[in-house]
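Schema walkthrough. Field components (list of strings):
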Amino acid sequence: MSVIKNINYKIDKFKLSVPSWEFPDKGLTILTGESGSGKSTLLDLLIGFRSCKGMSWELLGEDYCLKKIEDKNIGLVLQKGELFPHLTAEQCIKFAALARGKKNYLDEAKEYINELCLKSETLLQKTTTLSGGERQRVALVCALIGDPKILLLDEAFSALDSDNKERALSLVNNFCLSKKIPALLVTHDVSLISKSVSNFKLLDGSIV
Amino acid sequence: MIIFIVLLLLSPYLILVTKFPSLNLINISEFIAVFQFTTKQALLSAFISTSLGLLVGFSLASIENKKAYKWCELACYIPCFVPVIFVVFSFLNISQLFGFSLSGLFGIVSIHSLINIGLVGVLYSKVILNKSSLSNQLSLVQGISKLDYFFKILIPLTKKDVLFIFSSIFLFCFTSFSIPLIIGGIKSTTLELLIYEKLIISNSVEQAVLIALIQFVFLVIVMLAVNRIDLKNTNAVSLKSSYYKFKGFLLIPIVITVSLVLGLFINFNFNLSGVFDLNLILYSLFIALMAGYAMFIFCQFVFFLLPSKFLEKFLLSYSSPSTVLVGLAFVLLFKESSSLKVLSIFLIYIIIFIPFLYKMFIQSYLENLAPTLKLAKVMGANAFLKFKMISFPLSYNLCLFIAFLTSVWVMGDYAVSSLVLGADSTLALSTKSYMRSYKMNEATNVIFILLLCELVIFLIYKGLLNVSNKKH
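Field assembly_structure (string):
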């Protein structure tokens, strides 16, 4: 299990308080919550964009809070499918692979691209010209290609239609099970709960 | 590697500290008189620039059309961004034409004000648009009178910003060197001129250092008392209805800019034979382009190291020492070697220009770049990969623009070059000599050549930009 402890984070009058939280260290975990419940803030704390004194995060026998962001080996997909605006989709995937020292990534990348039904013309376009759904799928390929130790997905399928959503979820699930890593999907879409191995809800800054 | 940048920017202070002289050397009465004059001219310049600049800011903020706003903004920026030599020369010509003398306190304060009114206008218009748009619209709905709005809402909301703008202009005018160098005189000596005189004319290095250090302490005290405002570039907000309807004050920067341009050619007579010196032209272009190249490399190095909270904070809070102080430090460091002294001029330009350029352009650009750099970090990219594929391509055009500005300014610089290079060794120094001896016809012709060189610089950088855009 992955264990997170002692989150006490305040922004103005909102407080995120998670004394202890365990979720499986293999497979997809879903965290739901209404808008403003603190989901993205929690993700920021896990990634390391924000810091919280006293917080600990045990994963794979290490305290991930002590690691630098770049050493955590996180596969990240954000809500808007944030990528690099001056690069094409293909170049973004190449960057993600090279960033993890992977030179022979093409076969693996092709596998993910085919599973997500991304067209070859789409890959040659600058990311700023892609639709929201295309960006999220490309961002997912970038997240997977780096052999992450954990996937953090912030509303990562919100812009996908039902077929593409199914394919993406299936890919994430198979990836997590084969690589034996956890994935944490933060969403307000409760219909996805059935696809997960465990699920939690964030309510008024606490996990229930 | 960050320490390298910090050491470079702090080097003038570090060099001068090693030369700390005895207090007995200073002529107290002379120092006090010069200090009083420096403070007086800086206060007057800041007051006039800020007062008129605020009026310009109101009118600028009232422009609803984005294109018109951009053109007016450009007119406001021109006197501030063109090399000082053009401003001084142009208004000296105009003053001669109208038969009044632009010298002493009046001359210095006038030129300072003409340069800064437009800049204050732009800064204040951005403060208004940033801070008061919502309260403006709320007040309109509530039916508050204009007087009440200005005195009870706008002024309390923006008084800290006005104070900061005033203080910044004061500091700029206090440490101004190039304008008093030409316009000032025996009874109109500023601290910068006094340092210059002690260093170059009296050859009294210890006195120059002592005066520079006292000035530095005074400046630090002033800077510590000043809060920072947000100098981010703001997209002009289009207000459907606004309290600021009067656009008449925009005439101020427009008249200044038009006068600046026309004043350059008052004495022009197409007789370039007496002043045309190819070696001088090529040497001036070489210095300007190399300074631009050095600035480009420095900016790219900064982008390589960013994001870094420490470096960003340092560059945001760093204020360069005055021109003379920086020049003095490197002249002292390399006094045994004239070739190293000449090469140090590129470092001097970086130290002098980077605080303004960072706050004006790089800081806001970095904030836009932050999410992209964060993503690269999460992906695990090392510094070299991040720079090669992300920072360098995204910052190239901005760094090229900054290098272009540097080259333009260096081409027209006679302040730093008068400290480091030989007399009349560049076009700007040559112009300065003609101006000081009131040979305005010759000065006009050299100015024309200088403008042509600026055009050459523009074409070179435009070409580089086109190559970069084609590649991407």
